[in-house]
Amino acid sequence: MNTRAGGRSERVRRDFERIHGRAPEGVWAAPGRVNLIGEHTDYNDGFALPMALPQAAVAAVGRRTDGLLRLHSAQGDGRVTELRVADLAPGTVPGWARYPAGVVWALRERGLAAGGADLHLDSAVPTGAGLSSSAALECVVAVAYEELYGLGLGRPELARVAQYAENAFAGVPCGVMDQMASVCCAEGSALHLDSRSLEVRQVPFDLGGHGLRLLVLDTRVKHDLADGAYAALRAGCERAAGLLGLPALRDLAEAELDGALSRLPAELVPLVRHVVTENGRVERAVARLADGRPEALGPVLTEGHASLRDDYGVSCAETDLAVEAAVAAGALGARMTGGGFGGSVIALVRAGEAARVTAAVTQAFTAAGFGAPAALEAVPSAGARRVG
Known about the structure:
Family: Belongs to the GHMP kinase family. GalK subfamily.
EC number: 2.7.1.6
Largest sheet: 8 strands, mixed
Organism: Streptomyces polychromogenes
Number of strands: 12
Mean pLDDT: 95
Structural class: alpha+beta
CATH class of the largest domain: Alpha Beta
CATH topology of the largest domain: Ribosomal Protein S5, domain 2
Protein name: Galactokinase
Number of helices: 11
Oligomer: single chain
Number of domains: 2
Radius of gyration: 21 Å
InterPro entries: Galactokinase (IPR000705), Galactokinase_CS (IPR019741), GalKase_N (IPR019539), GHMP_kinase_C_dom (IPR013750), GHMP_kinase_C_sf (IPR036554), GHMP_kinase_N_dom (IPR006204), GHMP_knse_ATP-bd_CS (IPR006203), Mevalonate/galactokinase (IPR006206)
């Protein structure tokens, strides 16, 4: 399967014509992402360093004048989901359709003239792998509607709309990092994101030029961030910030961490320690990339995984084993990426060792009785855009 958006646009256009009986007005793409470092920091107003993947959600879209929203997915059951935009409300749309429908609802909640449309979606972003498949669906609809309906929203505003759709319509209390990565990333760069101001900086990330590759090892353990665990973590962080008299944990300096932890209930200590030290890891990672030393990211990644495992408690046996096996086989560093509770691990490797590291992780999984992981290569790619 060709996962690159440009190579799929004509097929998606043809499928739209077959399903909806007319030509679309355009084809758009929005990528999934991997987060290099900065996990569970975005809803604490902190920092992150994601990059877009070549794998993207592609959507052919045409406006309608009758107020109907007609959704079809190449990954769905073959049926067209038909909704009235005026009737959209949280909790009324099940399954995958709640992500694109939620964006239309969120735009209308802002008082914007977002009307009906026919959509055909085809996503190459693996679902449940911690690679932001839902954000890709949201963001491709957001950028298509922005252009078709002339909404006048900038990229950060589109990301906020998509985040609001996921929070309020789909019921997942995520931060804004996934959506900002999907709409704002640039080819060949990682995105240094300030989640409070939404200020971004493109940080060159030339893997090939330094003889490196970034592997994504999907454990195939599916995560569901709507099951309450994610919300409980966020609530714990917000409670801790309140007890410390801070707007958000982002406002706690690493030098002040020990004193702050001594004033908190024991159950909140590891959450705060992770968030504050993770913000520090983002800054260290950005500095190493700015110095032209991407290979020096390795120890930062592995340190970040230990914090997610031991302090934040969002790893699992499969992701821990993948990290351990990758590092033992020669990876420069590895960590789980995404919200956790399964999903994927990233491993920074020298180009000549990619196959050996992948094989070592697969062998470790077999020995442990786990299903074989899926492997793909993460290449810093472009954010959401029109492709046809």
